[in-house]
Write a structure and sequence with these properties.
The chain has 8 helices and 7 strands, in the order βαβαβββααβαβααα. By secondary structure, the chain is α/β, with parallel strands linked by helices.
């Protein structure tokens, strides 16, 4: 079985609009469904992580000076087998709370592992336009997204505050399950391959400067 991190892509905990924190409902649903499959799962909530006020990525600190919250999360990212990215839509793009959090970490922590894109909204589109940009972002981060995605329109009518489906539970679980099933399949396949072959020998992470990746 695999270990997953579910990243909640919203730090808003206020109204209006009401109800607050729709993303938490969606994230809790993802956690519950993955646990039904026997996996271990941790929800990563940006409200629980004290980030430095001045942006500085984890890899830019000296080992002795890394803020503990950043270092703790880096360890969790490195140990995970896959990721679920839950995001609202802001200006046709992913939530700034999610992109800001993820930008603190280098791709070597995420690399050679899959991710799943889950978006939501209080309106009719379900955050689908955010998902378009998320594919590019997550691919560059190293955790390639699986092909199936989840979009939840009118999330306040689909899920209660605990992440339980209000109606058509089997249908919604099946809809989520198509994406999460792909994530499970790829995470287990990637884990087996990492045991067979060290991915850092196939594609070494740059250690000094980005120009190590440049063409000769």
């Amino acid at each position: 079985m695999s270990h997953f991190l579910v990243f909640l892509g919203s730090a808003r905990d206020s109204t209006p609009p009401s109800p607050a924190r729709l993303g938490l409902r969606v994230a809790r649903a993802c956690v519950a469904l993955l646990r039904v499959g026997g996996h271990t799962v941790e929800l990563i909530d940006p409200l629980d992580i004290e980030l430095p006020q001045i942006f500085k990525p984890h890899f830019a600190y000296g080992k002795a000076s890394v803020p503990q919250p950043l270092d703790d999360l880096a360890g969790k990212i490195e140990q995970a087998d896959g990721y679920v990215m839950v995001s609202p839509e802001y200006n046709h793009s992913m939530g700034p709370a999610l992109s800001h959090l993820l930008n603190h970490f280098g791709s070597s922590l995420f690399a050679f592992k899959p991710s799943a894109i889950v978006t939501y909204s209080a309106g009719q589109w379900g955050g689908v336009r955010a998902a378009v940009s998320m594919r590019t972002f997550l691919s560059e981060l190293g955790c390639l997204p699986v092909s199936a995605m989840v979009h939840v329109p009118h999330a306040q009518d689909v899920l209660d505050a605990d992440g339980e489906f209000l109606d058509d539970a089997d249908r919604w679980a099946g809809y989520f399950g198509r994406t999460l099933g792909q994530l499970e399949w790829w995470s287990e396949a990637a884990a087996r391959q990492r045991e067979e072959q060290d991915p850092n020998r196939v594609s070494p992470a740059f250690q000094r400067a980005p120009d190590q990746r440049n063409a000769p």
